[in-house]
Amino acid sequence: MHKISLEQWRTFITVYDCGGFAQAGDALYKTQSTISHSIKKLEKIVGSPLFELVGRKAVITPFGESLLSAARQLVTQADNLEHDAISQKSEVGHTLNIAVDTLFPRLLLTDILHQLTDCFPNLNIQLYETVLSRCAELLEDGTVDVGVASLIPKGYIGHWNNPVELFAAAHPQHPLFARDNIQLSELENYRQIVIRDGGLRTNVNSGWLGSRNRLTVSSVAEAVTCVKQQLGFAWLPSWMLDRSENAGELAPLKLIHGMKRTVVLQATIRQSSIDDPVIQQLSKLFDRYLKQIPQQQ
């Protein structure tokens, strides 16, 4: 049995948001002493102070701040579950929870989901865009049933894979753009747009972070925007470079020997969901599309 209740986490978040015990009590319709007792009990369980009192203000400690994001996610998920449970009174809707790495071709993904919803018109889909280790965490936590990413959890099996080619790309007015046979080492002198690992528990270095000057973003779409605004270069998937809306604003640099990166995205399914008809059909669609268009990016 869990030692910390959802209500205690909610109280913790509210004290931070409101800035004090009395204010949190007003927000939660509880007395200040009740709020104080709940926080003290929580601190005793976790073994470290969560707040320091500065005058009448409750200031979160570094330890408390390290728990805040995960606590918010936990409470939000519980609230969403409660809402879904109450709202689905007449029929239990089927929901597909899927995490897909930001590098996976978006047009290919939408085509697959379109075919899937044709087969299951009443299907609800929760789609998570992830980077690096975040997909594995969502699988391990049971948040998603299917994950498509370069990193999968230990003990899981990849059902199929899709290689994605990445090219160092920049705006045509970038200083490197007009040059030929650019060495990788030369890129170190220019700002790189980096897509950060979305993991909450782990953080993986992609191994391509040679530049000393970086601008870090959260997705391929954000990286493209920054490159088009001439903020630096980025390693981007070929399917993004091929989009017509990026013509004239985004193109690969001419690296020596046509150098590129390849990331292999794998799909994995939670064992408890593998016999689900929706997930079986999804797996067939992925497999069919990737066989028909093996190099589609």
UniProtKB/TrEMBL annotation:
SUPFAM superfamilies: Periplasmic binding protein-like II (SSF53850), Winged helix' DNA-binding domain (SSF46785). Gene3D superfamilies: 3.40.190.290, Winged helix-like DNA-binding domain superfamily/Winged helix DNA-binding domain (1.10.10.10). InterPro entries: LysR_HTH_N (IPR000847), LysR_subst-bd (IPR005119), WH-like_DNA-bd_sf (IPR036388), WH_DNA-bd_sf (IPR036390). Residues 4-61 form the HTH lysR-type domain. Keywords: DNA-binding, Transcription, Transcription regulation. Belongs to the LysR transcriptional regulatory family. This is LysR family transcriptional regulator. The lineage of its organism: Bacteria, Pseudomonadati, Pseudomonadota, Gammaproteobacteria, Alteromonadales.
